[in-house]
Design brief:
Keywords: Signal
Number of domains: 1
Distance between the termini: 38 Å
Shape: globular
CATH architecture: 6 Propeller
Protein name: Sialidase domain-containing protein
Number of helices: 1
Organism: Lentzea aerocolonigenes
Strand content: over 45%
Helix content: under 10%
Oligomer: single chain
Number of strands: 33
CATH class: Mainly Beta
Radius of gyration: 21 Å
């Protein structure tokens, strides 16, 4: 779940910049492995919790918003997670997780974590959302989620667990932040990052909407305040997930930082990418931008948000009938080359047009300066692209996946959608030929996310998809796709010699 979009395409217009699309001299394709179905029937469909007056039924046997992580100590082991049984107005009955011990060739379901009432958790949490998994340098596995009472941004919490290898199950989750929604205080869009340079360290971050001083001024002052902010929150573990620090804002500034995600550089520097949706209580050309903050001391102190590029918004629609699509657009994905230290951020942007396309920005000096944004989806200027994911291999190969609608046929009643993969061996100065990864599938079969009955936010398979280096130049793509009556999670291994 993320906060309701409050913006229209009114931000700054930036020039269209294209990285070279010519392949490198040593062009070679991925060897694309089998398309493995990861998810199966839900065990939660009979759960009586989580319904609302507006929506009494969830989408049964429907998994959305997947993430994946690979164990650096044993790359044959990987863990994936997703929402389970999505509700039309936000959140899910539970979060499911799976483990592979053979490099993604097959997967088995892990026992459920008691996140929500449907999974044996506190009855005050009728739903849960935003799954994310990760490993640290030592191979400790972490799983984070956001328990909620409903989709109204009322009661919301941040809860995290780690894998107990003696039992092969997740430990009881620890709630590290909980708010009841009073004075519009809520939590949203959580992610977690294991540190590849420090054993036992992992970092949780999310957005916490609040007034300064947690809204302790009068309600009248709240209603007339222009100081409402979305703080980038931070908590860390240094003992493999046994304990977590008291959450604190990365910065006490009047900004609204959505989609926070941390990546770690080879020197241990932390980079937090987030969409800054307003600054100083105003929406203007200078205050709406993709941002990155840095920390040189494992998250104890953070820089001010550095502007990567202005953000412009283009609403996603099915071309056939303009039915909205809710997908990863301005929410970023970030990756770091652990050899060169280059930092890459991808997101969806209109670049001053009505068409959302996947763009990339790059920094080679620790986040001080950025190139781009450059369009890196190749479907053509009139083709929507979204649901981007990026990662960098051990050798510095950059891999990018995304969806687009280039093969859609207007008026045939099918929202034809395909998934594509690109890779670069020279820091994205040029790209190898694009390859088809999955599809076509019909996006019309996806669950619909609603503001309220009769008011759809859009077709929803997730605000993000999973992509993770296995070892060398091998990569695992972990994503959702539609079926006749919902959505399933798939995994595809990509090998490159």
């Amino acid at each position: 779940m993320r906060a309701t979009r409050r913006l229209t395409a009114a931000a700054a217009v930036v020039p269209l910049i294209l990285f070279s699309l010519a392949p490198a001299a040593s062009a070679a394709p991925f060897s694309v492995g089998a398309d493995v179905l990861v998810s199966g029937p839900s065990a939660l469909t009979s759960c009586p919790f989580g319904g609302s007056a507006a929506f009494a039924a969830a989408y049964d046997d429907t998994e959305v918003e997947p993430q994946v992580a690979v164990n650096p100590v044993n790359p044959a082991e990987m863990i994936g997670a997703s929402q389970q049984d999505r509700w039309p107005d936000g959140g899910a009955r539970g979060l499911s997780s799976w483990i592979s011990h053979n490099g993604g060739a097959s997967w088995s379901k892990l026992p459920d974590v008691p996140w929500s009432a449907c999974q044996g958790g506190p009855t005050r949490f009728g739903r849960v959302t935003d799954p994310w998994v990760t490993y640290d340098k030592a191979g400790n596995a972490y799983f984070i989620g956001q328990p909620i009472d409903s989709a109204e941004l009322g009661l919301s919490a941040i809860s995290v667990t780690s894998l107990d290898r003696s039992t092969g199950t997740w430990r009881p989750p620890q709630i590290i932040q909980e708010d009841n929604g009073d004075r519009f205080v809520f939590n949203d869009k959580v992610s977690i990052t294991g540190d590849p340079t420090r054993a036992g360290y992992a970092y949780a971050t999310w957005l916490r909407g609040a007034y300064p001083n947690n809204g302790k001024q009068s309600p009248t002052a709240d209603l007339h305040s222009f100081a409402y902010r979305g703080q980038a929150m931070f908590s860390r573990t240094t003992d493999g997930g046994l304990t977590w620090s008291t959450p604190v804002p990365m910065r006490n500034s009047n900004t609204y930082l959505q989609g926070n995600q941390i990546a770690v550089g080879p020197d241990g520097t932390l980079y937090d990418a987030a969409a800054n949706l307003f600054t100083g209580g105003t929406v203007n050309d200078n205050g709406v931008y993709m941002s990155v903050m840095t920390s040189r001391d494992a998250g104890l102190h953070w820089s001010a948000p550095a502007k990567v590029a202005p953000l412009t918004f283009a609403q996603l629609f099915v071309p056939d009938d303009n039915f909205p699509i809710r997908a990863g657009d301005y929410i970023p994905d970030i990756a770091v080359d652990m050899t060169s230290g280059a930092v890459y951020v991808v997101w969806g942007d209109g670049l001053g047009t009505a068409v959302n396309r996947v763009v990339l920005a790059r920094s080679t000096d620790g986040g001080r300066h950025w190139s781009g944004p450059a369009v890196v989806a190749t479907g053509g200027p009139g083709v929507q692209s979204y649901n981007h994911a990026i990662d960098v291999s051990d050798t510095g190969m950059v891999t990018l996946t995304y969806w687009d609608d280039r093969n859609n046929v207007l008026g045939d009643g099918v929202a034809t959608t395909d998934m594509w993969v690109r890779h670069s061996h020279n820091g994205t100065l040029s790209w190898e030929p694009e390859q088809h990864l999955h599809g076509p599938f019909d996006l019309y079969r996806a669950p619909v996310s609603y503001f309220a009955p009769g008011d759809p936010r859009g077709l929803f398979l997730g605000d993000y998809m999973g992509l993770e280096t296995i070892s060398g130049n091998a990569t695992i793509a972990f994503f959702t796709s539609t079926i006749a009556d919902g959505a399933d999670v798939h995994a595809v291994r990509l090998n490159h010699t």
